Amino acid sequence: MTTNEQTSEDTPQEAYRFKAEIKQLLNILAHSLYKDRDIFLRELISNASDALTRMHFESLTNRDVLDVDAELAIHIDVPEVDEDEPKRVVIRDTGIGMDHDEIVQNLGTIAQSGAREFLSQVGEADFDASDVIGQFGVGFYSVFMVAEEVQVISRSYKPDATAVSWTSDGSDNFRVETAEKSDRGTEIHLTLKRDSDEFASDWKLKQIVKKYSDFVRYPIYVGEEQANQQTSLWRKRPSEVEAEEYKNFYQQMTMDFEEPVSTIHFASDAPVHLRALLYVPAKREPSILALRKEPGVMLYSHNVLIQEYCTDLLPDWLNFVDGVVDSEDLPLNVSRETVQQSRIMRQLARTVRKRALKELSQLAEKEPEKYAAFWHEFGRSFKEGLATDPSAKDEILPYLRYVSSGSEGELTSLEAYIERMPESQEEIYYVLGDDEQSVARSPHLDPFKTRDIEVLYWVDPLDAFLAPMMQEFKDKKLRNIDDAGLELPQMEEEEVVDSAPILDEVPFNLFVGRCVTTLGDRIVEVRESKVLKDSPVRLVTPEDAQDRDTQRLQRFLDQNYEVPKRIMEVNRSHPLVSNLAHLLEEQPDSDLIDLSIEQLYESALVQEGLHPNPLQMLPRIEELMLLAAEAAANGTDRN
Ligand code: ADP
Ligand code: MG
Predict the structure, then answer these.
(1) I want to staple 74 with a disulfide (CB 3.0 to 4.6 A). Which of 126, 220, 327, 604 is the partner?
(2) How many structural domains comprise the chain?
(3) Full residue range of the structural domain in which residue 375 is found
(4) pTM metric for this prediction
C-alpha cells in the first residue's frame, strides 16, 4: 500500500500514497467545494481540542509526560511573508501529539470508511459537503480547500518520542520525515492557495473562531489575543445565569433585538446527556439583519459546533425554536455508527420536543396574553403541523386557539371551551366563515344564541381545510353548526314565548315552492327551519355531503370553483318571509319575488363564505332598490 523510499542518507524521507478514497476526497475538496471553506478552521480546532482533552486525561494519571505543565491551549498565527510569497497560517496545540507511526496512520493510510461514505453522498442534492465533513471522520482533509500545501509537525507527549513532519500538497501522496520540535503537541502549517488569502488575517480568523468554536473549552489565541469565549452559557446551571446573559446570548446568536417570547434552559443526563438553551423568538419573520437564516437549532458535540441548522431534533411545526443543543453522547464522526447515532438523535429529539412543548403549555397557562401574541405569530405552524403530520395530532390540538361567540374577542383553547360547556352539551360546535364579523352574524348562530351555547369561530382558511382532521377532542365530537341534522337541546317552554307569529301553512308552502322553482338545481331542498330566529333563511349542509368543509377552500384555490349545493332553510316567523309569501298570494308575477329569493340565497352564500363573487349581486340589489323606491313612491302618491 505504501512505498518507502530513502531519498537521502541523513534526512530519511518516506513517501506514501493516500488510500484511493482519500485521494478522491482530496480531489473534490481541492477542486469543487467552494462553499463554507472557513470550516477548515473549525475542523483543525476540533482536532486540536480533542488532542488537548486526551492530553488532559493522560496527565491525570501519568506525570511522565513531556512539558507536563504546559498550558492546554490552541494558538493561531499568521506569520509574515514577503509580498509575493503565498500567505500562511499556523495552528498549534499543546495536545497529545503524534509520533511517526501515528501520523502515518492517522493522516492518510488508515482505512477510511468515513471517506467512502462521504464520497457516496457528495453528489446528493441536499448534501452540504463542507458543512458536514467533520462528521465523517475526515475533517482534517478540509484544509485542502484553502491550502496548496500543508505541513504537520508533531511531537508526542511520550518523553522519548521524536518530532515528525508530514507534508502534502493534497494530490496523491504525502511525505514523512523527522523534524525539529522541542515542545509537545502539533503544529499545522498552511500555505494558502491564492484564492484563500482572506484567511491570513487575524480579524478573519477571530471571526471564524467566534462563529464555530466560541465555546471550545480551551483558550484559542489568535495572535496575542484570546478569541473564544470558552465557557458556554448552556453548560452553566440555570440558577447561575442572569436574565441579562440569556438575552445577550440570544442577541449575539441571532441579531434579533426583540426579546424572545421564551427562554428554555435545561439539562438532562439520562437517557442521553444533553444541555440545551432554546429560544422562542417574538416574530416569525426574521429581520433582514438576522444572523440565523434557516430554521433549526445549533447542534454541538464536545463543545464543537457540528451542525449550524439541525432540523432533526424538532418537528417542522416547531422549527421556529432556535438555540443550542449540546450532547457529549454524539460521536464526533457520527456516520461510522449510523445506527447508534440515530438512536441518540431520536432520544435527543424526544427530550427536546417534550421540553419545548412543556414550556409553551406553561406560557399559555401563566401568561395567556403572551401566549396569544405567540399564537398570532406561530399558530399557523401548528395548523400546518396538523395537516402534514397527523400523527402529532394529540400533541398539537391543545395548543390551538380560536375566537368564539363566548370569548369576547379573547382566544380560547378547546380545553377551556369544554370546561365552559353546560352539562347538557355533548359536542364542540364551530362555524366556518371568512372573518369574525361575518360569522358573528351567521344565521346558524340563532339557535345557539337563544340557548346560550358557545360556538368556535373558524375563520382561517386553514380551519376549513383541517376540519376533516378535527373530528374529536377529548372524547367530544366537533360539529359544524351548518349541519342539517344537528340536534340541539330543546328550549324550555317559557323561553320560547316571545317568538313572532307564525305564517299560515298555505302561503308558507306557496313561498317554499316558489323558492324551489326559482333556485332550481342550485339547491338540494327548501324546507322550514326549526331553529332560525333573527335571520330569514340559512344554508345548511346535507348530511351526505362530500368534503363538506373543504369545499369552501376551493374558492381560494381553484379557478373552476363550483358553488356547493346546500339545503335552504326558511324562517317561518320572519317578516320578510311572510311579506313575500303574502305578496306571492296577491301578485304572483311581481318581479320582487324572484329577485328577493335570488338575493336571499346569494346573501346566504356570502354569509357562508361560499360566494364566488359577491360583486355580481350589485345589479340585482340596485334593481331591488328601484322596485322598493317605486313602491314607496306609489304609496305616497295614493296618500
Ligand atoms: P477525526 O477527528 O474525526 O478522527 P480527522 O480527519 O479530523 O478525523 O483527524 C484524523 C486523526 O488525525 C484524528 O483522529 C487524530 O488521531 C489525528 N489528529 C488530527 N489532528 C491532530 C492534532 N492536532 N493532534 C493530535 N492528533 C491529531
Ligand atoms: Mg477531526
Answers:
(1) 220
(2) 4
(3) 371-494
(4) 0.66
